[in-house]
Amino acid sequence: MQEQQNWPVIIVGAGLAGLTSAIHLSKMGIKVLLIEKENLPAHKVCGEYVSNEVLPYLDSLGFDPFAVGATRINRLEVVLASGKTIKTNMQLGGFGLSRYHFDYSLLQLAKSYGTTAIKAQVQQILFKDTVFTVNTQDGKTFKAAQVIAAYGKRSVLDKNLERPFFKQSAPFLAVKTHRKGDFPSDLVGLYNFKGGYCGISCVEQNIINSCYIATYKSFKKHKNPEQFEQEVLSQNPVLKQILEVTEPIFEKPLTISQISFLNKPAVQKHILFAGDAAGLIHPLCGNGMSMAIESAQLASELIIKFLKGQIRRAELESSYKKQWNQKFKKRLNTGHYASKIMQDSRFSSVAFKGLKTAPFILDALIKRTHGQILKPLAL
User: By C-alpha distance, which of 153, 164, 115, 159 is closest to 10?
Assistant: First the structure.
């Protein structure tokens, strides 16, 4: 082991939640070690649509997504497998920005505020006598007063930490590619097909992001993502037309398997979990990126109070759990039920008729899966 190093905060994972926390804490003068296993910039499997609720907070951190080319999105269309379509204007709206540019831009901002970022695979996080010990695969050991786990949907750490969901079924997989062609830049579309649904929207430089989620059971009958696209996704006539007039940019699509939407504890073994590591909303509801940013804000604000001695560890953890549930539990449940409906053709048909009769229900669903405008950082 190399010489131990002590930090007020260690953040494991440089996704949106981890990077936002690093920026927030560093800007407030707190020394942060950010550990990420991958090289950045990198493409990630993600819907790449973000609700505008995060804009005041991001602005206060010093980040403007439109300065790096984000598209403005204010329309939504939901299309059943049969091709039946519902369209609506979104009151709050959002923006499209690839994780490639988003994560990298945030990383540079975090570094400019003093965050120390290293590439390493964290193998173990231990807590003893009020101190965390973080061990990496390459033999390094770091100490911290507090750890934020923001490493995404699934990690070897989940197994090592004995997180309950890790032992249960994770029957979903997701596939993403960027495309070029013709698609309205102000629209986010959700397209149902047998066994899943696909989200399509534009990001920077007129690039079209296509990301779908499906059950492994429906996917395994086909040889590869390309065949699944041709034989399953294209059964939706509207989605088929979009796929025909656009073409992939990536040599191969990105995939991620063993996705679980089961409940995850927001605090475990004194670690605060943020972003997808704390809870994953179904992509159908299109707000996971905003939730990651909001969870980072919540964790950062409480950690600052803890480090200043304004609250004890027990209050830090209980407050985080309580506020996390208040902010996100209903959204996660709504996403879960909406996904169940969309995956069953009978239910989705009935739901579609209801939405046609009372279109305000769709607006209510959007509102229920989105949060309040995030308050700016108070310096």
Answer: 115
Strand partners, 119: 36
A 10 A CB-CB count for 346 gives 8
Q: Which residue has the tokens 């609506």?
A: 88
Q: Which ranges constitute the DSSP H helices of 80-162?
A: 99-112, 156-160
Q: What is the dihedral of CA 290, 296, 301, 304, to 10 degrees?
A: -160
Report pLDDT digits (tens) over 340-349.
666 665 656 6
Owner of token pair 């003068």: 29
With H, G, I as helix, E, B as strand and everything else as coil, classify residue 19.
helix
User: What is the rounded CA–CA span in Å between residue 300 and residue 21?
Assistant: 6
The residue written with tokens 């994972």 in the block is 13
User: What is the C-alpha radius of gyration for the chain, rounded to an integer number of angstroms?
Assistant: 21
Nearest one of 20, 28, 17, 16 to 8, comparing CA atoms: 28
In angstroms, the CA 21 to CA 128 distance is 24
**CA-CA distance, 221 to 155, in Å (whole number)?**
27
Confidence class for position 352, pLDDT limits 50, 70, 90: low
50-87: pLDDT as tens digits: 999 999 999 999 999 999 999 999 999 989 889 989 89
The one-letter code for the residue type at 223 is K
pLDDT tens-place string over residues 264-315:
899 999 999 999 998 877 665 668 899 999 999 999 999 999 999 999 999 9
Give backbone dihedrals phi and psi of 78, rounded to 5 degrees, phi first. Answer: -115, 125
Q: Which residue has the tokens 């409906």?
A: 341
How many CB atoms sit inside 10 A of residue 80's CB?
21
Yes or no: say if 7 and 142 are a contact pair by the CB < 8 Å rule: yes
State both tokens at 85.
């379509």
CA neighbours within 13 Å on the CB side: how many for 24?
27
Tokens of 75: 């329309």
> Could you tell me which residues are beta bridge partners of residue 181?
246
How buried is 353 (Cβ within 10 angstroms: 0-12 exposed, 13-18 middle, 19+ buried)?
exposed
How many whole angstroms separate alpha carbon 286 and alpha carbon 211? 11
To 5 degrees, how large is the angle CA 123–CA 128–CA 134?
25
The backbone torsions φ and ψ at residue 294, rounded to the nearest 5 degrees and listed phi first, read -70, -40
